[in-house]
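Slack export, channel: ligand-projects

TW: morning all. Re-posting the request from yesterday since it got buried. We need the structure predicted with the small molecule present, not the apo form. The ligand is pyridoxal-5'-phosphate; the SMILES is in the block with the sequence. No rush, but it would help planning for next week.
GE: picking it up
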Amino acid sequence: MANVKFHSGEQIPLEMHKVRIVQKLNLPSVERRLKAITEAGNNTFLLKNRDVFIDMLTDSGVNAMSDRQQAAMFIADDSYAGSETFIRLENKLKEIFDTEYFLPTHQGRACENIISQILVQPGLIVPMNYHFTTTKSHITLNGGIVEELICDAGLEVTSSYPFKGNMDVIKLKAFVEKHGADKIAFVRMEAGANLIGGQPFSLNNLSEVRKVCDKHGLILVLDASLLADNLYFIKTREQECKNMSIREITLKIASLCDVIYFSARKLGCARGGGICTNNKDIFVKMRELIPLYEGFLTYGGMSVREMEAITVGLDETMDEDFISQGPQFIAFMVDELMKKGVPVVTPAGGLGCHINAMDFVSHIPQEQYPAGALAAALYIASGVRGMERGTLSEQRNPDGTETFSNMELLRLAIPRRVFTLSQIKYVIDRIVWLHKNRNLIEGLTFVEEPNILRFFFGRLKPVSNWQEKLAEKFRKDFGDSL
Ligand SMILES: *Cc1c(COP(=O)(O)O)cnc(C)c1O
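GE: finished. pasting the full token output, ligand included:
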């Protein structure tokens, strides 16, 4: 966003775009919200959109498109093979990453499937700054082992460390020396580390990781799904990069990695994904799997319209005004909540505002899913849909015991260019109310529990009638207001 000072001294993020297409929203009554969350098995993934007022579930595939993106969709070249649309996308990726080869996929996790099938063998380890849900599932499905080497600050909920997504390079060195390079499938760095609050790595950290990879002949894979936020943070927080353009930073990052993959549901603000590399050997191996799982090599499961939108979206990602909107709205929300004493992840990251449920509802034990309970409670109090990112998003161990997550977060994603500041203020208001009434919130327990990625469609129930009591308190305090 542009550098604009307010005469009042107030610091608020200023949108550098105007809204030209709108969608009507519906705010159901608290009685309806109570019913809806029960019908959804207390899982916000299972709520119907018609019952949701502000949808902060995710930033995936729900970012607002620009007029240029929509215009590009009209000129999409529909053909099974060899479409001009594909060539435009391929060329755009060559331009911003300087990579020779591109494989299209239908979304981010499809890249993870293909990369894991080619590079992971049973017993091999993948050291990474931090895991993502689908990443871990694909690596373990192929018999691999995930090893997280995030820097210590990364797991501190509140911190002033600007690059909490950094890998601990000393730990990486020791790890490689201990296990030997032939036990390692590849090293993975995730931009805007999702599960710890959209936290960035620094360019310097990535360079240090690269040095370790070079020394031991290891492949470095970048998950660039949340690269846009990470680019903004490198530009604004890393002293050495102050004078570099977003394009220069992007090229530098790409030059340090062997394989780059991304979800275009986030990067590029449309729907799709892809893998970029300069490594011909890896490219040739992965290429065989694309027609098998995705579609022919010139669409990979994406519609040509979406591919045109991604091409333009990637170009717009190189514009600082464009990529700053999300982080600045998030910083506003984090600052306002902190002022009111609500525990949040700091410093503000990308992707969304993350509430620390471990502290917010410290009376709920981890086996009763504090972040999941908080997500259900916030929905009842506001019609706002967030996403649990804690123990519920983990998988049980083979012996049936829980893997307790390092953090219990309620993630309130802020899709790019979608919400206005008054909507953000409404969300803040209801969270503050809920925080004052937090002792009314109790835990959840599973009624139906899938074995894999249980958070997507598992069903839960409250451990008592606490949700009715919360709705009653809402009525008492807000009267007939929605
Ligand atoms: C969303 C995401 C993915 C998976 O992408 P999909 O398009 O949802 O399959 C992988 N890694 C990260 C960091 C993500 O945020």
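GE: first-pass observations. The domain at 2-59+320-478 is CATH 3.90.1150.10 (Aspartate Aminotransferase, domain 1). The chain has two domains: 2-59+320-478, 67-317.
TW: perfect, thank you
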